[in-house]
Amino acid sequence: MKKILLYALLFAFALALSARAGTRIEAKAWSKVQTYDARTLAPSLEGHISELAAVKFTFRGKDIHHLKPNWYEGSIWQPDPKGRKGFSDVRVMVARKDLAAFKSITTDSSAGVEMTVYGRVLRDFDAHFIFVQLIGRNTVVDPSGNATISW
C-alpha cells in the first residue's frame, strides 16, 4: 500500500514538473520559426495557418473573453505609424493555465517596451476566425537546437 502511494506521489510530482517545464519544440521546427511584428502579421494571418511564429508587440488588449472550455480570447497590439487606425492587433487564444501570465502583460498603450510571444497560427472553423494560439514568452534552446517555450 505504501509503495502504491509513493508511486502515485512520484507520478503526480513528475506530471507537475512537466506542466511547468513548458512546450518542447524540436530543433527542425524551431529552425523554421519566423519573427513578425503584430502590424506585419495581422493583415496576412491567413497565409500563415499552422505556422509556429514569434510575434513582437507592445501591449495586450484589455478585453479577455472565455470562448471555449479552458481557452480565452484576447489580443496583442502594436503601434502602427503607417496605418490609419494608429494600432495593429492580432487575435490570440490563451489556455486557462496560462491566463494569469497573459494578464500580467501590460495593457498600457503608451508602453514602449517591445515583447515577443510564441504561438501557432490556427483557424477556428466554428467561429470563422484566425488567431495565434499562444505557447509562451520565454525560450531556452538546448545545445542540440531544441527549444522549450514557457511563460
Could you explain how this protein is built, in words?
The chain has 151 residues and is an alpha+beta fold. It has four helices and eleven strands, in the order αβαβαβββββαββββ. Strands 2, 3, 4, 5, 6, 7, 8 and 9 form an eight-stranded mixed sheet that branches. The chain has a three-stranded antiparallel sheet with strand order 1-11-10.
Q: Distance between termini?
A: 38 Å
- Could you give a short account of the major beta sheet? 8 strands, mixed
Q: Give the total of beta strands.
A: 11
Strand content: 35-45%
The string of secondary-structure elements, in order, is HEHEHEEEEEHEEEE
Structural class label:
alpha+beta
Rg (C-alpha, Å): 18 Å
Compile the SSE list and pairings.
Layout: H1 2-21, E1 23-25, H2 27-30, E2 34-37, H3 38-41, E3 52-57, E4 59-60, E5 65-68, E6 71-79, E7 87-95, H4 99-103, E8 115-124, E9 129-136, E10 138-141, E11 147-150
Parallel strand pairs: 2-3, 7-9
Antiparallel strand pairs: 1-11, 3-8, 4-6, 5-6, 6-7, 8-9, 10-11
Condensed summary:
The chain is of the alpha+beta class. It has helices at 2-21, 27-30, 38-41, 99-103, and strands spanning 23-25, 34-37, 52-57, 59-60, 65-68, 71-79, 87-95, 115-124, 129-136, 138-141, 147-150.
